[in-house]
Amino acid sequence: MNEKKEIFNQIKKLMKRYEPPFTARNDFGSRYELWSEKEIKFDGRKRKEIYFAGLIIQSAYVGFYYMPIYVDTTLKEIFETELLSTLKGKSCFHIKKLDKKLLSQIKKSLDAGFKLYKKRGWV
């Protein structure tokens, strides 16, 4: 199995712990997304769903998309150096190598994001 597929599978395993209450979409070999299908209000607008996190295998990395950062930018403070160094833009991490420490930091961010969504009544 190639390295990107292994990275994808390890992070996906962490994310599957949140299914349910989140619903998996685009769940196939190179893409995986988690959504809350609960009607919510965000930014003054009603929404029928909200994106939580996703993975996609790109040509040079595995993209880990983490939407809770848009809800509460202070979540960025929990990111440690290793995870922060892979952040490209506001919510996309380019994962090229994965070790236990980085995997642990991704788990910690997923836990924090889930707690935030739960606190807001989105799951």
CATH architectural type: Alpha-Beta Complex
The helix-and-strand class reads alpha+beta
The largest β sheet comes out as: 6 strands, antiparallel
Range of strand content:
25-35%
Going across the biggest sheet, name each strand in turn.
1-2-5-6-8-7
Average pLDDT value? 92
Coarse morphology: globular
**How far from one another are the termini?**
34 Å
Would you give the CATH topology?
Aspartate Aminotransferase, domain 1
Helical amount among residues, as a percent range?
25-40%
Order of helices and strands: HEEEEEEHHEEH
Count of spatially separate domains: 1
Please provide the count of β strands: 8
What's the alpha carbon Rg, rounded to whole Å?
14 Å
Unreliable stretches, pLDDT < 50, 5 or more residues?
none
Number of helices: 4
- Oligomeric grouping of the chains: single chain
CATH C-level name: Alpha Beta
Can you give keywords for this protein?
Aspartate Aminotransferase, domain 1, 6-stranded antiparallel β-sheet, 30% strand, 4 helices, 123 residues, alpha+beta, two-stranded antiparallel sheet
Could you explain how this protein is built, in words?
The protein has a single domain, classed as Aspartate Aminotransferase, domain 1, CATH 3.90.1150. The chain is globular. It has 4 helices and 8 strands, in the order H-E-E-E-E-E-E-H-H-E-E-H. A hairpin with a 2-residue loop joins strand 1 (23-28) and strand 2. With 123 residues, the protein is α+β, with helices and mostly antiparallel strands. The strands form 2 sheets. It has a 6-stranded antiparallel beta sheet with strand order 1-2-5-6-8-7, with helices on one face. Helix 1 (3-15) packs parallel to helix 4 (100-119). 33% of the residues lie in helices and 30% in strands.
